[in-house]
């Protein structure tokens, strides 16, 4: 049973467009929701994260929107650039010690110049 | 660079071989992780070490054997692997083992079992 469902599996966006990746979770005990970015030949790296006490968090061109009642969160990349082409993973966890991250399947984003 | 290094970067081994993957972190972290990354599957957490003690072992076959001699080094010993074990093996570290702790990943070892 997949606890964190991520969509779409792949996404193609034109330069300057908005990229949107969605995730849904099932466990209402989750209270930490990060997004990781992975470039080819590299490991994932934390991009941005949110906790359920806020509905939105923005860092530069990257925004997480969080809908607690729907148990969904999404990543928006504004003014997408070719350098944003990567695989994006959402994840979820309960905070506190000895809690592991539950990962989505990943979204492969290609931004065309 | 993330401060987490992995060697080798690529490894081809036969099903009867024995090999080891090495991970080293230069971040002063107390927790280290092994993940398996396969196409079309979520990242699979294999093992977690916190302060050099194994705290998580997610039903990983015994042909994978981890070792954490100190808080900076982590090994994954491999023997009699199967072709389905071919994958990218990622090492990560974090300040402590906790869900909200940022994990820093190495570049991975691409393993091919023939």
Tags for this model:
heterodimer, A: 113 residues, mainly beta, 6-stranded mixed β-sheet, 5-stranded antiparallel β-sheet, 11 strands, B: 114 residues, 7-stranded mixed β-sheet, 4-stranded antiparallel β-sheet, 0% helix, 56% strand
Describe what this molecule looks like in 3D.
The complex is a heterodimer of chains A (113) and B (114). Chain A has 113 residues and is an all-beta fold. Helices cover 0% and strands 52% of the residues of chain A. Chain A has strands at residues 4-7, 10-14, 19-25, 33-38, 45-50, 56-59, 62-67, 72-77, 86-92, 102-103, 107-112. The mean pLDDT of chain B is 93. With 114 residues, chain B is mostly beta strands. Chain B starts with a strand and ends with a strand. In chain B, the strands form two sheets. In chain B, strands 2, 4, 5, 6, 9, 10 and 11 form a seven-stranded mixed sheet that branches. In chain B, strands 1-3-8-7 form a four-stranded antiparallel sheet, with no helix packed on it.
